[in-house]
Amino acid sequence: MGPLWLLALIAGLSFFGFVLGRWKSVVLSGKGRGTLAARPGYYGAYVLIWTAMPALVILVALSIAKPFLIEHTVRANLPAQVLANSAQLSLEVSGVEQVAAGLKLVTPEELENIRIGVVSARSVFAQHGLPLGGDVKPYQLIAAGALNLVSDGLDTAVDAAVVAALAFGLIFAFVRVKPRLRARNLVENTVLVLLIAASSVAILTTIGIVLSLLFQALQFFSMVSPASFYFGTVWDPRFAAAGSTESGQFGFLPLFWGTLYISFFAMVVAVPVGLFSAIYMAEYATSKVRSVAKPLIEILAGIPTIVYGFFALTTVGPLIRDYIAMPLGLGTSGNNVLTAGLVMGIMIIPYVSSLSDDIITAVPRSMRDGSLALGATRSETMRLVTLPAALPGVVGAILLAVSRAIGETMIVVLAAGVAARASLNPFAEMTTITVKIVNQLTGDLEFTSPQTLVAFALGITLFVITLGLNVLALTIVRKYREQYE
Amino acid sequence: MTEAASSPPASRIGGTDVRKISKIDIGLKRRYAAERRFRTYGLLAVTIAICFLVALFGSIVSRGYTAFQQTRISMIVDFDPSIIAPNGDRSAAAVMSGNAFRFDDLIAASLQKTLEIDPNDEDALYDGLDLLSKGSAPMLRSMIAADPSLIGTKRSVDFYATGDVDAFIKGSIRADIPESQRLIKDKHIVLIEKLEKEGALRLAFNTGLFTNGASTRPEMAGVGVALVGSLYMMLVVLVLSLPLGVAGSIYLEEFAPKNRWTDLIEVNINNLAAVPSIVYGLLGLAVFINFAHLPRSASLVGGLVLTLTTLPTIIIATRAALKAVPPSIREAGLGVGASKMQTVFHHVLPLAMPGVLTGTIIGLAHALGETAPLLMIGMKAFVVEYPTTPFDPATALPTQIYMWATEPERAFTERTSAAIIVLLAFLLAMNSLAIILRRAFERRW
């Protein structure tokens, strides 16, 4: 049975268990064996939980364990000289998996023919619609046979274990249904555990991000030293061919410079426009203007970044190239730092403005009123009283915006270019950390070459940078909020 | 103010003489000017932001609206059995196999008839074939395979014109530039005018844009397959992130004791909301594809990754909605003997549901436009077939936009803009739904 059938079986039996448990509690209390300690539905839910939970746990646990067991089997059946070549090992394993898939397609006679060598396995598989990259080697056939044996055995074991768990849970819980059973407390405790588990998904995600990135990044750093990565000034990863051991130069600095330079232009656009619109909204705008302008600006935040990227690529880039860069003789490419920065700035305006708006309006009214009562104009009040009071919060908002600019991907992928260089010319093509992550992971995906793994090193660096900025920003904003609460 | 402005600056403030005070210049003119300037800056900033919005929409709509219409050339095709089924076998399999050029012959024959070309004039025939999409013959073949009873009949078939002809009809390739720089030559223009006069060539609503899959020929490319992929992903996101998000927020908001662990979760969720989406893509690649061996390019994996990206949004929205339910509701529930769990699930959660749904829809809208993590897990494939299950290879609307955006042809630019319009229309619909829901069910306590 496939996992979907097992899930359907679990769902069906659990529902049956619910009906059964509820029915038993009603019948027992009707026969005068005591009043129920909980409403009948809870007895049903009690049986349901006992039926479904153990079976689900077993199913999930065995499904997770299966790939490991299979890989172990394959390794155990590969000859020593293949095992010795560790660089090719994952290729070998996936090769055997393909052969195993092919073996499942062939008929017994064909299998016999392959075994005695009348026909080649490759041609037989091809007849069944499974083209292989190369000829099947004898040891692959042996390992694939073992794999299929173990895999089929495991499938049967999973089926048996799940069915046994279902039967056990259903019967056990059904027997225990008695009027005096405190079914509600038991059910509610289970629900509470589920709630806690759900809230831990956030933690699990973070752990998952850190571990998965770290694991692959460490593999990268075993091939390329961290010092030459973080302090290298040349980015030239060469070809990412499968199994290639030739390694290029992975200098992080030009990417980091491109990222910072583009983010700088983004902030040059976003901070003044965002901050001044927040001030205008908070201080001057009539409620009518506010009710129209504020949602309009917030639309900017809801537009997917790919749309901004396309806008930069087709509209802003050519405009800047034709009317500024070419006449000044500074560049000939529509992909440049200024385009990416400008469009990214537009995207960030609403983040700066809505956060600043919140922070400015959070400054106690008494401070403003005091300043106005002393005769200061509204702009003086804003410049000399409200803004200084709101400054930490505004800085926090800007830091959050910077972190968003650094992690932004689609705009720079489409508008910034791919050439990794560090220059001061804003009309030059430059590239960012995120662009290189995308570049290095598209195309041939082999998780053994530094050309691919570098994406994870870049990823964890990016994660650490943005995490640092976020933590800093959130702490500042929080501190600031507490100050006025 | 005018008095103060006209008087010379005074060096001291004070004194009892009223006349003297009125003569003191406290810089009001300068200060009011500064006030006006400051106000203008603010207004300017708002105007600039709105101008950017208008420019963005204007640029996309002006490029894309033409793609909703497409040039078709309808011709009478004689489904000649001696050409289609030379050995008499009319089954779909026989139609799909065999000499593929026989369908080109069918098209050539009907083109000769429609344009009244001399059957011996090969050059004129090739000029005419230049106008038709190169996908016409495969289209005709699958049309016959789907309905073999067509064989032996004569019927009018709508063919796609090539992207260049389409651009010419829509005016983006102009006839007044020198012929050598034009993709449509003078001989083609003569044929196009002839077809137009006969009513064979016309602009029609572009249904293919919504039903076709990926294609290297712009006139045959559509977002249909990508839409289905996106739909599957949204389903996965909804099914996973709504229960997970709601359950997690209920615990954090209603049950969690205030301690280090819950503080950690709290900080964590706020941080996760600000982690760059591409990092989620790397997580998906490392965990779901490399570790769990889930199929690449499948909408299930895309949905899983997007679930993780939207979960923080949904949790934050749900917690706000739960917080907005007044404590009196909980106290009343507990007061009449309900357990804490019953109070929350029977009273607090239903009252918070409008807020939860609004937050979920906004989270889904974000997920729909997310591109970078999908590139990481390989949802950038060239997918022609509709995915039937979430395990099949699929693309999503934003990744389809990304792939088209990097194509140089003018016809693809037009289609990219059209796809963006479709995407924005979906986002607009979802956000409007969220606003309507909020308006309809919001309760002020």
Q: How does this model look, in words?
A:
The complex is a heterodimer of chains A (485) and B (445). Chain A contains 18 helices and 2 strands. With 485 residues, chain A is mainly alpha-helical. Chain A folds into 2 domains: 3-181, no CATH class; 249-483, MetI-like fold (Orthogonal Bundle), CATH 1.10.3720. Chain A has a two-stranded antiparallel sheet. Chain B is mainly alpha-helical and 445 residues long. Chain B has a 3-stranded antiparallel beta sheet. Chain B is globular, with a radius of gyration of 33 Å. The interface between A and B is large, with 89 and 88 residues.
Give the helix tally of chain B: 20
CATH third-level topology of the largest domain in chain B? MetI-like fold
Shape of chain B: globular
Task: Find the biggest chain interface.
Answer: A-B, 89 and 88 residues
CATH architecture of the largest domain in chain A: Orthogonal Bundle
Q: Give the mean pLDDT of chain A.
A: 85
Task: Determine and state the CATH class of the largest domain in chain A.
Answer: Mainly Alpha
User: What percent strand of chain B?
Assistant: under 5%
Tell me the CATH architecture of the largest domain in chain B.
Orthogonal Bundle
Categorize the overall geometry of chain A: flat
Tally the helices of chain A: 18
Strand order of the main beta sheet of chain A, please?
A: 1-2
The tally of domains of chain B stands at 3
Share of residues in helices of chain B: 55-70%
User: What's the total number of strands of chain A?
Assistant: 2
Taking the sheet with the most strands of chain A, its summary is: 2 strands, antiparallel
Order of helices and strands of chain A: HHHHHHHHHEEHHHHHHHHH
